[in-house]
Amino acid sequence: MAKKDIPLDIVTEHVKSHQDDKTPFHLLPYDAQMNVQMDKRADAVRDGTTEIPPVPDFDGQDFQIKIDGVIMYLDVATMLRKSITGKPLKKYLLVKYKWSDSIFSKVDWDSLEAYLEGLSHQVHTNVL
Questions:
Q1: pLDDT tens-digit profile of 27-57?
Q2: Which domain of life does the UniProt lineage start with (predicted)?
Q3: Residue 123 φ/ψ region, left for φ over 0, alpha for ψ in the -120 to 50 degree band, beta for the rest
Q4: 116, 127 contact by CB (below 8 A)
C-alpha cells in the first residue's frame, strides 16, 4: 500500500525530539506529546518489553526480514546467527547443566554475552 492509496489527507511534519527534557509533558504541543509517547513505545519494543505491532507493507519498502515472527530492524546478522544457533545451544546447556526451562530463563544472557566478549578466546571457550 502506498501513501497515495490511503483515502485520507496525510500531512507529515518534523517534530523536534527530546523537548520533554526541559519542558513538562503536559506543557508540550500535541505533536511533541505524541512524539514522546512514540519514543517510549519504540524503546519498549527495542528493549524487548513489548511485542512489535504488525507492520503494514508499503510501496518503496524493498524487503522486510522476520525471524520467528519478529521483524529485524537492527543488526540482522547477529539476530540471524542467534536464531540459527540459539535453539541447539539452549538444548546443549539444558542437558549439560541439567537445567529446567525456568532456570534457563533466569540467566541474564545479555550480561553474560557482554562479559564473555571481554575475555580472550581461550578463556571464553573454557567458560562454556
A1: 999 988 998 898 888 888 777 766 666 666 6
A2: Eukaryota
A3: alpha
A4: yes
Beta bridge partners of 11: none
Per-residue CA distances from 87 to 52, 92, 109 (Å): 22, 9, 14
Q: Is the CA virtual torsion 15, 16, 20, 22 positive or negative?
A: negative
CA distances from 22 to 16, 26, 56 (A): 13, 12, 35
- The pTM of the full predicted model, rounded to 2 decimals, is 0.43
How many helices (H) and strands (E) the chain has is answered by: 5, 2
Backbone angles phi, psi at 70, to 5 degrees: -105, 130
Kindly state the cell numbers that stand for 60: 518503496
